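Structure ticket #2291
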Amino acid sequence: MADQKNYFQRRTKDRGPRSNNRIYSPEVQVISSDGENLGVLNTTQAISMAKNEGLDLIEISPNAKPPVCKIMDMGKYKYDAQKKANKAKKKQKKIDLKEIKLRPVTEVHDYTFKIKNAQKFLSKGDKVKFTIRFKGRELQHTHLGNELMEKIKADMSSIGKIELHPKFDGKQMIMVIQPL
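Resolution: structure written out below.
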């Protein structure tokens, strides 16, 4: 019955770096609150030094031999880490894949309209996937699709480069272009 109780017990996930009594290593490399290297110290001695200053001993680099710990305020450390993560997330650019569908018999005006849209997508930083769909007897004239893809390559060469060269996928021909 005791095993069953432990089975349903909630497991807590580690939140952030280890600090104070959660540091398992017997010796640690200690950096003071003002950034001075204090050298390798006993963990209990380092924790007591941090407590004397009213701060925490935080494990900065756990994989080093011995682990590197810094004397600082845990709340401030977590706050700074969160700010850094938010700043990195804000700078991140999500690249979308826009698809433009054509037929081998697409008229000139429709073609130019779709090429303008593709250029707009590429200038925004998105990738563009060109799909030429063949129906019925058009499959016997795949050379029309090849000619259209070559024309697209030529028109898009100034603003993008080919990521996936034209290839057949069932009844359609696919090509992916990414921004320069």
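Closing remark: The first strand starts at residue 27 and ends at 31.
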